[in-house]
Amino acid sequence: MKYAIALVIALTLNATANLMIKFGMERFKAAGVTTADGAVAVGSALLTNWVLIAGLCCFALNVGFYAYALKGLPISVAYPIMVTVGFAIIVTVAGMYLHERLTTGQWIGVCLILIGVWLVARQAGAQLGQEAPATPTAEVQPDLTEPS
Question: What CA–CA distances, in Å, run from 97 to 12, 23, 101, 126?
């Protein structure tokens, strides 16, 4: 369960990072700084863009939680969940706050992808539940007594 929680945190951080970077670049664009202003001006505008920096920090945290999740979950399950649920979050938030619109066909595709990942995760969860827990092996201790 702790690995699944780490995966949920990782995918939330990943989606948040992508959205914050997008919002940060919108702020950068609104500031009017261009490459014609020089590398120092561009670098300064990027380094003082707290939304962009926070997004990059979310990416770094995401990597840590995702790596931990992979300790206990198969990558064939974790990665599809990470990517597709994050995708659904991003599509929804982008539609609400960035006014990006998907066509009906694209929404149907998103729903089909989510259904597919649900099927993969459900089947994998059943398989993980069926596996017998590892039993500790008894260590063989050498007989240190003298023969009689």
Answer: 17, 10, 11, 37
